[in-house]
Each structure stands twice: as C-alpha cells, then as structure tokens.
Amino acid sequence: MPVSGGSLFRRGARACRRARRGEAGRRGSRMSSPSCISAVLLVFMALAVGARAEQSEQSGERSCDVVGDKSSESQMERALLKKLEPLSQMRFNVTVEKGKTENYVYQFRVCREVNSTLQDFAGLVQTNRQNGKTTVIGRINETQVFNGSDWIMLIYKGGDSYGSHCSSEKRRAVIMISCKRGVTASSFSIISEEREKEQDCFYLFEMDSSVACPAEDSHLSVGSILLITFASLIAVYIIGGFLYQRLVVGAKGMEQFPHFAFWQDLGNLVADGCDFVCRSKPRNAPAAYRGVGDDQLGEESEERDDHLLPM
C-alpha cells in the first residue's frame, strides 16, 4: 500500500525523537545528533523516491495494446508498433463540414490517448462543433496493425456504439498510413464513413509518413564495385611504385613517380594518336599553295632583244 509523504515525515520525526531520548538516556544528549540526522536523511530519500514514482505514474501515457493476450502478439505486430513510435508524440486534426448538418473535428494520435486525463483509451475522437458532443471512434486498447510493401494499416476498435446504424455495434477507425519518404507525417484526412451496413462499419482515414516506407537497399551496384576496384588498383600502383622507386632504386624528386618517362611522353603519344585518327587529309598531300619558281617561267629567247642593239 503506498505511503504518503506526510506520513513518512511524521514517522521520521517520531524516529528522531525516539533516537534522541534513547541516546540521551544512555550516553547523554550530545551523542543524539548523528542518529537524528540519519533518520531525517532516510525520510527525505524516501520522499524523493516516492515523488518521482508518483510523477512518472501520472505523466506516463498508455500505448497501443493489440487485441488478444500479450503472449499472443506476434513479432510482426511488435515490430510495427515500434516502427510507429516516432509518430506517438504528434497530434493530428481534421475538420469536416458538410452543409449545416455535419460539422465535425476529428482528433487522432498514434498509439496514445487523445486526452490522457480522461483515462478512456480514446485514440481517435470525433467532436461535434455545433453542440460540443464528443464521440470516441476507436480506442488504443483494442488495436490491430498489419502492413504491406509500402503501407501500414492501424485499426482502433472498441469505440462508442452507433445509435441507429450498424446494429448498434461499436465504432472503429481504420487509418491507412502510406509511404512518403522525407516526411515524418502529413496529409491526415478522412476518406469516408461506412455506416450503411448491418455490421462491420468503420471510419476510414489516411495519412502519409516515412515510417511506412521499406528500408532502402544499401547494396552496391556492379558499376560502383568496378569503380572502387579500379580506384584501389590505381592507389596501390602509385603508392607501391613510389616506395619501390624511392627505397629500392634510390630515385629522387619526380623520378620517384613510377614509370615517370612513360607518363611524361603520354601527352605526345596521345597527340600523335589523335592526329593519326582524326585528321582526314593524307599526310603526304602537296601543299595547297605553291610559289612561282624558275621552272614555271620557262626559257626566254636569247634573240628577243637583239633588235635593240646598235648596228
């Protein structure tokens, strides 16, 4: 049975007085202080522990309880509830207004009570904005959960009973959580309310969240493996060749680089190859422009100017 703080304090005071009287009767009042101080310290320690326990009990919130016995919960259900845990501290609201007859606000929490002070296990609540009436759509102590490749279905059962619909069965909420990467939670909305059947009526909601997404495949592609292998071989070649040239050959400066002469001539080799492959003109083609030479002028007649000479 829990003991209140006042009761503990009174017990500690009585123990202190008894210790003081006993010590005074045997050894004198000067020796009573240590016993009294010890008793008071014990009382305050008990008070502190009790206060922390009471505070944690009051602030602790109930979480989802899957339908059935605890021992019958599957590993999949436990894993899904743990996967939904990041959403438990968030609250979701949506307002639905249809003419003058329907004006509701729906409040939803993932595996937590909408109002923990009521202690009613209500996980999804409907509030009529016209008259303030509150109706529990589903409770977290009657939870079902299952999933697919990119979605999680959360079902709260055990809500307040229907009036004239669905054979007066208890309401239930179905929340479809779809995968959307990069978003913790968004787009909470109500899709429909199925209440025209004799039984198995439900409210259908949907929302987007990254918690419903499958784990991304982290395996490396073939191209990545080849690239890593190629980079590793280059690193081994450069480092190993550098150490060999420096420690074995005794090279200094740029000569320490492996096959330095080859890499130095690589630019010329590439240029020659490009010239050979890319140029379309034959290498031995005559020049497009030729200067005028003596062979093109021909021989002049030696007697061309003979008539100009004096006779």
Report what the structure shows.
By secondary structure, the protein is of the alpha+beta class. It has helices spanning 5-26, 33-59, 75-83, 222-249, 260-278, 294-297, and strands at residues 91-98, 102-109, 122-128, 134-147, 151-158, 173-179, 186-194, 202-209. Strands 1-2-3-4-5-6-8-7 form an eight-stranded mixed sheet, covered by helices on one side. α1 (5-26) runs antiparallel to α2. Mean pLDDT is 79; it is low at 1-6, 23-33 and 48-59.
Number of strands: 8
SS-based class: alpha+beta
Main-sheet strand order equals 1-2-3-4-5-6-8-7
Number of helices: 6
Please tell me what the overall shape is: elongated
Largest sheet: 8 strands, mixed
Give the C-alpha Rg: 46 Å
What's this, in brief?
By secondary structure, the chain is an alpha+beta fold.
Which features characterize this protein?
311 residues, alpha+beta, eight-stranded mixed β-sheet, 8 strands, disordered N terminus
Topology (elements, then pairings):
Layout: H1 5-26, H2 33-59, H3 75-83, E1 91-98, E2 102-109, E3 122-128, E4 134-147, E5 151-158, E6 173-179, E7 186-194, E8 202-209, H4 222-249, H5 260-278, H6 294-297
Parallel strand pairs: 6-8
Antiparallel strand pairs: 1-2, 2-3, 3-4, 4-5, 5-6, 7-8
Helix pairs in contact: 1-2
